[in-house]
Amino acid sequence: MTRINFPSRTLSALALAATVGLGALAAPAGALAQSYPNKLVRIVVPFPPGGSTDLLARKLGEKLGTTWKQTVLVDNRPGAGGTVGADHVSKSEPDGYTLLLGVTGSNGIAGALYPNLPYDVVKGFTPVTAVVSAPLLIVKNPNLPAKTLPELIAAARARPGSITYGSAGSGTSMHLTGEMFKLATKASLLHIPYRGSAGALSDLMGGQIDLMFGDILVVQPQIAAGKLVPIAVTSKERHPLYPNVPTVAESGYPGFEALSWQGLFAPPGTPAAVVERLNKDVNAALASPDIQDYFVSRGFKLGGSSATDYKNFIEAEASKWAGIVKASGAKPD
What pLDDT shows up at residue 30? Predict the structure, then answer.
């Protein structure tokens, strides 16, 4: 191979050109970060209006809009368990003006559940920060004879398939938490999928099904009214709203943890300086007393994390749920 020897003057010129070129590439990203945001920001919610994700996005958007002095629009793009909205953001311009409030299903479970998912749950986004998380409550119809978690597990083992649990649909976090529970406890429960939480909740109160791995926000009013009975919580620690309800982990299954979470994501390739600004401002919004009071009283734990820590969390969640999907043989509706 012939070696090309550049004259020293030519090398100096090349070095200068390279430096100028790199500066030109860096300048737009730096300028964008300094001025960000200077126009409307969209937070895509991958579900219809009115749910907990939509409510959270609107509260967060109001706070960020005040901080930025810009309009923050909530853009509802429902469909396919949250994957329609997530795919839209994954393919959006990576400038920080289109964001996703992603959830366990769309950004954790979907990668293993849907064989033809059009995005990668890990590589298809730039994680910004954790927003909220909450465990699920295992709630039962008051007429189910089992009064404690050990009694429930014993009954499910003794009469396989005789105890039913409902979910908001196959592949949802409610369904796969139930499958995770079955794998951990060897309890044979029969899954009954519904199209949304409302149908499952109605049939649970009516006695058509026995159990539900429910979001606290969804089941809280029915527990207060005595229509449902909580027997366990899926976090590693007891929940402050239900201090007398034991965890699955402390009931003989150490390490068991299943959380329903929501986090903020940007498209892949979003400039690091913009991600840093988003991370700082969103974490500050989550720490504000009014946001804290509103969501903590409804059973949520407010997030706030570095972008790097959140990326590591998402990778771990994707791996965990992939194992549950494979072991359980779960399929989407």
Answer: 59
The pLDDT value given to residue 330 = 87
pLDDT above 70 as % of the chain:
90
Residue 141, pLDDT > 80, answer: yes
Task: Label the pairing between strands 163-167 and 189-193.
Answer: parallel
pLDDT at residue number 21: 52
Q: CA-based diameter of the chain, in Å?
A: 90
Q: For residue 330, which phi and psi values (nearest 5 degrees)?
A: -60, 140
Domain boundaries, the chain: 40-133+259-328, 135-251
How many helical (H) and strand (E) elements, i.e. helices and strands, does the chain have?
12, 10
The residues near 206 (Cβ < 8 Å, ≥ 6 apart) are none
Task: Kindly state the tokens that stand for 186.
Answer: 């060897």
pTM of structure = 0.82
Options 3.40.50.740, 3.40.50.10150, 3.40.190.150, 3.20.20.30; which CATH number does 40-133+259-328 get?
A: 3.40.190.150
Q: What's at 307, amino acid-wise?
A: A
Alpha carbon of residue 73 to chain centroid: 20
